[in-house]
């Protein structure tokens, strides 16, 4: 038996197909779109819901050692500290001395 090699997928063709079929659309498309942001169309919503349900069933419902939790993103700072999220977190800013505008340092580093 000969083994078939899967064809390479062109991302632009895949995105175009997904748009034509109603899976995704550029976010805020009527205002020119927003780079790297997508909204789910009717079929995309259903696909995403099915994937989430399958994941939840496999990872939470079918295991005895797991329980579900849907917690708030906004939490007391002590929660983030106790979980270790603050220890290694830094978000340095760079400020222009003449106009006083600020930018994230990692964004400026990517533009050089």
TrEMBL record:
GO terms for cellular component: cytoplasm. GO terms for biological process: glycyl-tRNA aminoacylation. Gene3D superfamilies: Bira Bifunctional Protein, Domain 2. One of its GO terms (molecular function) is glycine-tRNA ligase activity. This is Glycine--tRNA ligase.
């Amino acid at each position: 038996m000969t083994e078939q090699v899967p064809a390479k997928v062109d991302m632009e063709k895949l995105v175009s197909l997904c748009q034509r079929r109603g899976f995704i659309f550029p976010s805020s498309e009527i205002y020119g779109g927003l780079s790297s942001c997508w909204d789910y169309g009717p079929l995309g919503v259903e696909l995403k819901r099915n994937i989430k349900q399958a994941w939840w069933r496999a990872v939470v419902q079918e295991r005895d050692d797991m329980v579900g939790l849907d917690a708030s993103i906004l939490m007391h700072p002590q929660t983030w500290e106790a979980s270790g999220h603050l220890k290694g977190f830094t978000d340095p800013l760079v400020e222009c001395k003449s106009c006083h505008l600020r930018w994230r340092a990692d964004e400026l580093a990517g533009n050089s």
